């Protein structure tokens, strides 16, 4: 008999996200995403992609690709698959692929927590501003671990609840408000990766006052890693 899946506590903490609502919210968001939140992501996204250390011919999965702002930032000699739940967001991403002739990238509509891809089928997985948007963040990272190669890299770009008691208090209290606009503010990195056998290789912010962190994970532990240079194929854009 099939075993029933049990949601991780991170899924049910505070006010929950739900995929049907999220998809509908992002269908609406898609109309103005690039000129609002999307306008703020470029510099961080470019740096996060650099941390993947993509080599020619690598397969890259971008989960929750949204309107495809990241797609122009990947090297054109990699094979990129962008996945999203929202048809509205994917239509904007498709417009970018067509306008920029990005033949190295393709788009798939699917739930990032239950993708159609085989085990160990990607060299890298990018999860940019998505962890706090799904109903079960731990399940999403479990799926990343399944589809990335054992020596592969998962980069998560996200806001995590502050370890500061004061800031963390406000992030928890304000969470129901944030959920109404499509993301949650009460998530810790620790609970997202708990029990998955993923190693947090390193994590950092672009500046100390940045809300968002770049977290580099792998199923395999590695020794100290040198800082990345600029990514191949993209300049570190201002934004
Ligand atoms: C804040 S946007 C981030 C978009 C893009 N990654 C970026 O950094 O600009 C979150 C995206 O995650 C998508 N999303 C939310 N839940 C999802 C799920 N369960 N599966 C796939 N995509 C999902 C939304 O539709 C939306 O496009």
Topology:
Elements (H helix, E strand, L loop, with lengths): L8 H4 L6 H11 L12 H9 L8 E5 L15 E6 L2 H14 L4 E5 L12 E7 L8 H11 E12 L5 H9 L1 H6 L8 H5 L5 E6 L7 E7 L21
Parallel strand pairs: 1-2, 1-4, 2-3, 4-5
Antiparallel strand pairs: 5-7, 6-7
The chain binds S-adenosylmethionine.
Description:
This protein has one domain: Vaccinia Virus protein VP39 (Rossmann fold, 3-Layer(aba) Sandwich). It is built from 8 helices and 7 strands. It has helices spanning 9-12, 19-29, 42-50, 87-100, 137-147, 165-173, 175-180, 189-193; strands at residues 59-63, 79-84, 105-109, 122-128, 148-159, 199-204, 212-218. Strands 3-2-1-4-5-7-6 form a 7-stranded mixed beta sheet. It is globular and about 45 Å long. Bound molecules: S-adenosylmethionine (SAM). S-adenosylmethionine binds next to helix 2 and strand 2.
């Amino acid at each position: 008999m099939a075993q029933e899946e049990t949601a991780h506590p991170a899924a049910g903490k505070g006010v929950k996200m739900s995929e049907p609502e999220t998809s509908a919210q992002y269908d609406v968001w898609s109309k103005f995403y690039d000129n609002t939140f999307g306008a703020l992501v470029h510099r961080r996204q470019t740096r996060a992609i650099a941390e993947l250390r993509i080599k020619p011919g690598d397969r890259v999965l971008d989960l929750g690709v949204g309107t495809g702002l990241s797609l122009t930032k990947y090297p054109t000699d990699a094979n990129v698959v962008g996945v999203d739940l929202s048809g509205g967001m994917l239509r904007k991403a498709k417009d970018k692929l067509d306008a920029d002739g990005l033949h190295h990238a393709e788009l798939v509509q699917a739930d990032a927590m239950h993708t159609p891809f085989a085990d160990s089928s990607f060299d890298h997985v990018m999860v940019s501003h998505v962890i706090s948007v799904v109903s079960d963040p731990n399940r999403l990272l479990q799926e990343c671990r399944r589809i990335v190669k054992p020596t592969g890299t998962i980069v998560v770009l996200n806001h995590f609840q502050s370890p500061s008691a004061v800031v963390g208090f406000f992030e928890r209290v304000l969470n129901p408000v944030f959920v109404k606009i499509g993301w949650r503010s009460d998530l810790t990195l620790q609970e997202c990766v708990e029990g998955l056998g993923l190693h947090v290789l390193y994590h950092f912010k672009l500046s100390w006052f940045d809300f968002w962190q770049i977290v580099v994970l792998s199923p395999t532990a590695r020794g100290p890693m040198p800082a990345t240079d600029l990514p191949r194929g993209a300049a570190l854009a201002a934004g």
